[in-house]
Design a protein that fits this description.
The protein is of the alpha+beta class and 218 residues long. The chain is 50% helix and 14% strand. Helix 1 packs across helix 9 and helix 4 packs antiparallel against helix 5.
Length: 218
């Protein structure tokens, strides 16, 4: 008998470890096969909520926020690129030289959830930013991403051109920060188990297996 797992994946579309975490989680779920059935909900988190839509130079941002230069992050970037490649994701560091505000991307993801296309759009937005190097704050870029996964581009443009779902996204952001979520990815299973970081597949698989077998899961 399958065990149903409710998974809230708290993340930002400009977070590379969120790409790795999602890919690893999906591989873990595939490994568990018929033992579990996962219902994944993507919850909003903004790494840079005060940033303007035009974004900021990445090197400048790293120096300002972390006190390090791009060269000092070289090992981390290579680790991200390598982990992504092993999971079938292409991080093109040469195409990404700015960091952006992602609030509108989260509004679009909220709408996609209502349309049953949230996971597909999440993957499309990761590719848009980390592989193609396009701005996830640009409305036309977001509309193209929505259309690429079968969402109505005109409705996407209407959502982005208004304040639709702004209150809902803000409320969810507050909910998770007030619950103590201050870094992403944060994976919350059945509203009570927390797995943090871009963990390897085996870590996710082991944790999900234990949760599925726990008496409370029944």
């Amino acid at each position: 008998m399958k065990t149903l797992l409710k998974i809230d994946f708290v993340s930002d579309v400009s977070c590379p470890w969120c790409v790795i975490g999602l890919r690893s989680l999906e591989e873990a779920l595939a490994e568990l096969g018929d033992a579990v059935e996962a219902e994944i909900h993507f919850q909003p988190f903004e790494l840079n909520p005060q940033m303007g839509p035009e974004g900021q130079n990445l090197d400048e941002h790293l120096l300002q926020k972390y006190g390090h230069t791009s060269e000092q992050f070289a090992d981390v970037r290579e680790a991200i690129r390598s982990r992504g490649a092993a999971l079938g994701f292409d991080f093109r560091m040469d195409r990404r030289n700015r960091i952006y505000n992602t609030f509108d991307a989260h509004r679009l993801l909220h709408w996609a959830g209502l349309e049953g296309r949230q996971r597909a759009l999440k993957h499309a937005l990761f590719k848009t930013y980390f592989t193609d190097g396009e701005a996830p704050s640009d409305h036309e870029v977001l509309v193209r991403a929505a259309a690429s996964v079968g969402l109505d581009p005109e409705r996407a443009r209407e959502v982005l051109g208004s304040t639709t779902f702004a209150e809902e996204v803000r409320a969810r952001e507050r909910r998770y920060t007030e619950a103590g979520i201050h870094s992403v990815p944060s994976v919350i299973v059945n509203d009570q188990y927390l797995i943090q970081g871009g963990q390897p597949k085996d870590v996710f698989a082991s944790a999900l297996r234990q949760i599925a077998e726990a008496p409370a899961a029944a």
